[in-house]
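Standup notes
- DV: blocked on the single-chain target, sequence here:
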Amino acid sequence: MKISTEGLKSFIPNAEIERLLKEQENAPASRIRDIIAKSLDKQRLNPDETAALINVKDPELRQMIMDGARELKERIYGNRIVLFAPLYVGNECINDCVYCGFRISNTECSRSTLSHDDLVNETKALVETGHKRLIMVYGEHPKYDARFIADTVQTVYETKYKKGEIRRVNINAAPMDIEGYRIVKAVGIGTYQIFQETYHQPAMKSCIPEDPRAVSSGDWMGWTAL
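- DV (later): unblocked, structure below
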């Protein structure tokens, strides 16, 4: 779905990010420990504190960061893990992301889109193995518009097998306009995920040289998970 980018420009403060990373290259160990303690106290870190953590080279301090992250995760979430299965609906794509097998220039890729019967059968197979949550994956292509996605999600929800069913469908697809999000929300999706591979503009341009998400000014928008 075509999204107008007229008047938009990048919201990413690249110069500020580079400055902070440079300034925090040699943060003392005591500061790193204080930042870890602040995080464990469930306080939001400031950008300069995050930059200090990113710059840590000392193996012992890096281990402290990882240990702190693990402890914080366990405090908040415990040992609970929620699993979901991927269901690839279609791999048609107009993008040419160099790292992705879906890329339009990949002539060795076999393109297909699940039919209604295919989708029902795939859903039954996943339900039979015990899955209750899915993430449905779509390439970025005009045929995978909001109505198509909503219809495929509805098909999955309506598919019952034996005593099982899919209770939550998450989506991994292209960005939409507001009306598109309203359409997919109406069928009861869980989350709508849009991944931004990197916020570093030169890297983005080298990885996705012809990405339609580039705004007219030449800047790059930051799409994130909703």
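- Follow-up: The first helix runs from residue 14 to 23.
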